[in-house]
Amino acid sequence: MSILGTRVVRTEDPLFLTRGATYTDDLVDDRLTGAVHATFVRSQVAHGRLLSVDASAAREAPGVVAVYTAEDLDLDPLPAGLPMVPQAMRRPWLATDTVRFVGDLIAVVLTEDRYQGEDAAELVAVDVDPLPAVVTTADAAEDEVLLFPEAGTNVMAAFGEPAPHHFFDGCEVVVTQRMINQRVAPVPLETRSAAAAWGDDGRVTIWCTNQGAQQAKGEIAGWLGLDPAQVRLITPDVGGGFGAKIGADPEYAFVAWLAKKVGRPVRWTENRSENLIGMLHGRGQDQVVTIGGRRDGTVEAYSLVVDQDGGAYPRVGVVLPTLTMLMTPAVYGFPKVHAQARVLATNTTSIGAYRGAGRPEATAAVERAIDLFAAEIGMDPAEVRRKNVLPKFDTPHTTPMGAVYDSGDYVAALDRVLEAAGYAELRAEQARRREAGEARQLGIGLSVYVEITGADNGLGSAESASLEVHPDGTATVLTGTSPHGQGHATTWAMLASDQLGIPVEKITVVHGDTDRIPRGGGTMGSRSLQQGGAAVHQAAIELLDLAKQRAAEVLEADVGDLEVDLAAAGIAVRGTPGSGITLAELAATEQLLVDTRFTAEGPTFPFGAHLAVVEVDVESGKAELVRLVAVDDAGTIVNPLLAEGQRHGGFAQGVAQALLEEVLYDADGNPQTATLADYPFVSATELPSFELVEMATPTPMNPLGAKGIGEAGTIGATPAVHNAVVDAVSYLGVRHIDMPATPMRVWRAIQHAQQGGSN
User: Fold this and answer.
1) Cα–Cα distance between 103 and 277 in angstroms, integer?
2) Closest by CA position to 70, among listed 96, 105, 39
3) % helix / strand / coil in the chain, to the nearest 5?
4) What's the pTM?
5) pLDDT tens digits, 315-341
6) What is the distance of C-alpha 335 from the center of its chain?
7) How far apart are CA 731 and CA 726, in angstroms?
8) Separation of alpha carbons 614 and 605, rounded Å
9) Residue 740, preceding bond cis, omega within 30 degrees?
10) Is 672 exposed, middle or buried (0-12, 13-18, 19+ CB in 10 A)?
11) At what angle do helices 213-224 and 250-262 cross, to 10 degrees?
């Protein structure tokens, strides 16, 4: 029986639970002996003219090795990113004449001990003349205060055109709603960290927490003007990423530059408050949805207009609206679809990828739009969805926005979640509570979603893997993916074991060292199994082909007469018991190694349906999630245990955005959520036991039939919970509540509606 599809327990966990992980900050390495510690001096003002930086007192402080300001650097500003971004918006390594957000880098202090850096950094005297802060996208769009005057605008990039004026002509009903997909912080348990040391050979070794060593290496080499061959990047254990650790951060490259400058290894690890203001944030879209159609529930036209907050400097957030626009049609067969977006500079932390990266924003918008449309025509939101979702398809479907969906059965996903949840009974209980006038009202929220996974991440839709069997019967897999909690060591070993017959516990998986694995696409966009796992699968098949060729010589048999003996982990002559040779024996005579690269036929489009049940206390506004029923179709599942873990984590982050999380700034651009005392994120105590409904529609895009699962839970859960909260109080006249649906926000919406206002 194949090991694939079975609930193999994570092989990584015993080490994590006994010795513990080795994160970048934990590293003990001879190359880091004598390292100094970097502490960055960051702006305490969101926007202002930098008049002077006086580091003289800091340079005299105990333990200080050096202090660097902008005038000490010989580095060109960081690139602006995409070609359409004005080059005037390039970020300096250290602020020169202007600071643009609280957290902007102004100076860096190097000390013998870490604690000395915090004391010395406070001695750097920074004189800033405050300027008006641009905090919201609405303010940025006015262009009255410019972050980069030489650019002449706050628009970092723009995509699409306005909808034609006749776009909704003929629709019996048209509903428009402004909504906020709020800014959130990734909050990985491991904050950002890096270390660097130069060798006598003129090469630098960089250790840093990231989601793809090869991409991070390429960025750092480019920023510093180094030949990539001069850079070795190693990824130790990584304590969470969620998209915010894709590629390199400027601080990582700066640590390498500092090590060269000072002639000693340099280490840096940020504290939690620094992480909350310095690490890339996620989401941050102001959206306007307009949906039109007939009173029988047929949607005829849908438009989404997005203002994306880009933060102070252009990063990955600049491209996120393109993914939102791509997925605007979602699971629906709308005849007309329009999307337009622009990215605006604000005096806030830059925006980057966060679990789903542009796709959750599209789903959140359309799923709220469907509920708004249903409410306007007085139809059950489940029926509106059933009436408009695409019918089942097994051959590629091209959407109005150009996405090519591989396979889908959205009606079945919707029907399964409704049946599993007992939808009719829930609606009956909701009606009973409303009739009784109970304080705790029931809300039922739906979402049906599709997302793109395994898309070209700029490095191609391909992944590398090498596989070697050793004379002692063990095997080693080198992978270009970059696990940080996903369980690749277990799954990749399962894939190799399934082909070779070598037990999982005898297979070691290695990642994150650019000297050993020069090519790799990392882990992001739910790509790993369908590309990295497929590469391991392909490597195992190629290794068996090589083994058969060598075994044919040893056994004096034709290759065509040989077969794989999984029980013996070897090659045998078909129909001749006891005639075989093990892979280990073949490896003892000559290295048994293959190096391969798998290229996917295209991205995949996992889909599903979520149903959330909340109870809302209409007297206080407090919403409590009591049930979450979820169908998440990710094609073929290699390890159900790990897939469920990915779903659970995604649900939790989706619920958190709907109910709790929001990065806040005051009118002057000062962060209001710079500690975990102020920034809430969900814990197990706020979550019910999730109810998982199984469904699998294999994809033809890779030999495993697998689609991505890492982000699906977040994409489906957020709008389901959000819709449930609004549904719970809709009978009171509430039309819409922006996320997060905090008690105060819900209570205010109720009060406003009861006073005759509209949300």
Assistant:
1) 6
2) 96
3) 35, 25, 40
4) 0.97
5) 999 999 999 999 999 999 999 999 999
6) 31
7) 9
8) 29
9) yes
10) exposed
11) 60
